[in-house]
Each structure stands twice: as structure tokens, then as C-alpha cells.
Specification:
Shape: elongated
Largest sheet: 3 strands, antiparallel
Structural class: alpha+beta
Number of helices: 6
Helix content: 40-55%
């Protein structure tokens, strides 16, 4: 969906997302993170530096958004479901079993997170705010995207709006008293 009128601000970006997405706040947050990871041309991916090591863009986005979805009750319920699913694979060693359960829970959380990010990117693409393509080696099997990784390109006008500093109205006098100097005599 291409916009009929040009977007003039962040509110306009959000208004477009509200029309095409069932989760516009989440999609807007994904857009903001993609624009932070983007180079000057608006292109981000397929890899992003995480702790000095390359990470796939979708995985990086997912880990950045995990704090939004962490709720103790939901995580406990997921842990119980995963434990029931892998019950026959557990060894009886408490430490080894806890590590195996933790790994399975983390894999499930990341899988759901990747799906959520992909859905948000689809909403952003439908709104005309982002385009996507894939980079890497294409392999010949059922998964057409196998061996290729997502690259997202933010619309140049949108990137400019997201990176624009807030306007300053009125000049701040350099001789004005700062908060710590209010009562200085």
C-alpha cells in the first residue's frame, strides 16, 4: 500500500501503520530498530554487530524486543508446556535437565519472536515504509530462503524523519541558571 499523501512526521508514520497493522506500536518499534541498524542508504542486514560479533538481523531484532514480551506468568506457562513436551528426553539429572529445558524454552521464545518480527516487517512493507530482499547463497531445496538472510531497506523519507533531531524552539541562553545553580548566590 503506497501512501497518497507524503508523511511529514513520526505521527504520520504511526497513522499509516495504524491503517495496515493490527499491532502498530510493535511495528513502529521494529521500524525504529531497523532504522537504527541501517546504514546511510537505509539498508540494514543481513548481519548486525552484537557484542562485537555478527548476528543475523532478525535474531538481533528479536533479542532487542524480548523485554517487551517477558512476563513471569507467561514464561512459567511456556516452561511447563516445554517440560511436558520433552519429558521423555530428560535424564533425571537435575542440572542437565534444567539446562535442556532452559535451552528448549529459549528456542521456543526466539521462534515466536522471529515470527512476530516477520509479521511486523510484512506490515511495514505493506505500508510502503520498508522493502525487503534476501542476501546470501540460495540453496536448492524446499525452503526457498535456505541459506539466504533478510535485508531490510527503510524508505529514505521515513529514515530521514526517524533520524531527525527534535526541533529546538527558542534559544537557551548560556548564562541561564541551570538546575543545580538555582540557589547559588
Amino acid at each position: 500500500m503506497e501512501q497518497q499523501t507524503p508523511i511529514t512526521g513520526v505521527g504520520g508514520i504511526y497513522a499509516v501503520l495504524a491503517e495496515v497493522s493490527s499491532r502498530p506500536r510493535y511495528a513502529f518499534l521494529v521500524l525504529q530498530l531497523v532504522s537504527e541498524a541501517a546504514d546511510g542508504r537505509g539498508q540494514s542486514g543481513p548481519f548486525v554487530a552484537r557484542d562485537g560479533k555478527p548476528a543475523l538481523l532478525r535474531d538481533w531484532l528479536c533479542t532487542q524486543l524480548l523485554p517487551m514480551s517477558e512476563q513471569n506468568s507467561r514464561r512459567a506457562a511456556l516452561r511447563a508446556r516445554v517440560t511436558a513436551t520433552i519429558q521423555n528426553q530428560l535424564t533425571g539429572n537435575a542440572q542437565a535437565d534444567a539446562a535442556q529445558i532452559d535451552q528448549a524454552v529459549e528456542e521456543q521464545v526466539l521462534a515466536v519472536g522471529r515470527a512476530n518480527v516477520s509479521r511486523a516487517i510484512s506490515d511495514l512493507a505493506r505500508a510502503g515504509l520498508v522493502t525487503r530482499h534476501y542476501a546470501g547463497y540460495a540453496t536448492n531445496h524446499r525452503n526457498r530462503g535456505g541459506g539466504r538472510h533478510a535485508v531490510y531497506v527503510v524508505n529514505p523519507g521515513v529514515l530521514k524523519l526517524l533520524r531527525r533531531p527534535a526541533p529546538m524552539y527558542g534559544a537557551v541562553a548560556s548564562s541561564a541558571a541551570y538546575q543545580g545553580e538555582l540557589f547559588a548566590a
